[in-house]
Amino acid sequence: MNKKNTSLNFREIGARIRTERENLDLTREKFAEIIELSPFYIGQIERGDRKMSVDTLIKISDSLHISVDYILKGCKKSNEELDLQKEFHVLESSEENYNKVLDEDIKELLSILQRCSKTEINLIKDMTKLIVPYLKNR
Hints:
Layout: H1 10-23, H2 28-35, H3 39-47, H4 54-64, H5 68-73, H6 79-93, H7 95-101, H8 104-113, H9 118-136
Domain HTH cro/C1-type: 17-71
Protein name: Helix-turn-helix transcriptional regulator
Keywords: DNA-binding
């Protein structure tokens, strides 16, 4: 009977975490603060020198808005996430118009939203609808 190779490559896991953290412009120190771990421990994980608990894995997954599957195995995103990425790509595809219309803050928001699931985007929309009227009345 053929068994699939189920071993994990902790250097690759760490590299994926580091890449995603850097994509969010988070320093190791700031990221460690967010997930309540030491920067030294985060560094060990990112280098593949140290394994992490399931709780830590979930904290990292949630804070970087990436799936546990992606962290562990580099698995592609779900169909829902791919559809969202296509929508963002269409928005960005006309680079000239994109650069004319969107300022840096909006570009940053779009970058953050690209990492969110459809459920998270809907939650953000609902929260925004509640917050914006309050901000306008200040």
